[in-house]
């Protein structure tokens, strides 16, 4: 049986998982594809570094040219991460007629259109199932199984590191720093975890999910993105007393002819399926006009789970090579989206306010809410410190315009501080 040689660029958490899976699942893969697969060359930064995987029969190198100039290598997996030099690396590989698999959401969300067109020009495949929600096979599912349905919303927990941190803090009383360190040790976090904790990693994934679900090309700087770094434990506890779990959610919704996408902490009702997703697990809820609500759950980070998604792309590309059908885009759906007005984006909100513990303060808040046409569904007052009170409000539906007005009005009241404003998910 003919063997297809594979190159890897990167041998960290994901690269090691890919190497193990190719080695351990030879028989099944060749049974399905009619080809043997074998990893021939791996590009790393440091060839002398200790590796947890067996690289005895593999050429370890720092030179990409060892892959580029090797006609035997047909498929290359980019798992080095980051935008540069990953973009230049993939461009060079595609121009050398290599089919590429990547797990790199930063790159695909930012430069995916250009790379896709380079791939098409070279009749090469470029696939990236692992870039969104690690081990959950969500992108291919949207392409294949939602091909004819109109997706109205895609939302969920798409960052393993932050969900791990929130779970460890809420259930194990871990501090934020301890939980982040554990997520790094377990290989869930990016090499620089800033993008994880600041919501940027989740935003990249929502950009890719929006492309597949709505055909749109959203830009990172057009999205409101909030991470978990500034979240207060008091808000997490307060939310819990009100029957909610705080999760970092990505939400992308079709509103009229536009698409709205955001990432931030959201209060999820404790009995909602998304409230039950713990640790590094992710869950993506896709709502289609015909099918209704569907939920896809699984590990969002980690070597072998992510490698499984990479292998699904390698197997698809191998089949395309065998059938002579390479060069088609992973996602073909293209659709211009209108701008969504702030007045059209409506959610209930959790508001946490600090104010002097003296009579008349609540009246001021009530007057502002009445002025902007918003109303409360729940309100709780607790003592903050000796002379201030914390007031927590769950509002009825409010538009983003009303929320901005509320923030402006509260800014003008020296004595009242808005500490947090998070969306609340309905059941
Ligand atoms: N970790 C996870 O759970 C998931 C990760 N991903 C994505 O997968 C990709 C890889 O992540 P992960 O495996 O965690 O990263 P790691 O940091 O564990 O590994 C990165 C690897 O890339 C190599 N590398 C980095 N820069 C260069 C360079 N300039 N030239 C050559 N080699 C380089 C490193 O070499 P050396 O070993 O010599 O330092 C290392 O082997 C990223 O895009 C990430 O976002 C996606 C889903 C889940
Ligand atoms: N750092 C990412 C890895 C997977 O994409 C995460 O924590 O989700
Ligand atoms: Na995936």
From TrEMBL:
Q: Which Pfam families match?
A: Homoserine_dh (PF00742), NAD_binding_3 (PF03447)
Report if keyword Ribonucleoprotein is assigned.
no
Question: Could you tell me which InterPro entries the record lists for this protein?
Answer: ACT-like_dom_sf (IPR045865), ACT_dom (IPR002912), Asp/hSer_DH_NAD-bd (IPR005106), HDH (IPR016204), HDH_cat (IPR001342), HDH_CS (IPR019811), NAD(P)-bd_dom_sf (IPR036291)
Q: Where is the ACT domain?
A: 350-427
- Which PROSITE patterns does this entry report, sorted A to Z? ACT, HOMOSER_DHGENASE
Residues that coordinate or bind NADP(+): 9-16
Concerning its family, UniProt says: Belongs to the homoserine dehydrogenase family.
Protein name, please? Homoserine dehydrogenase
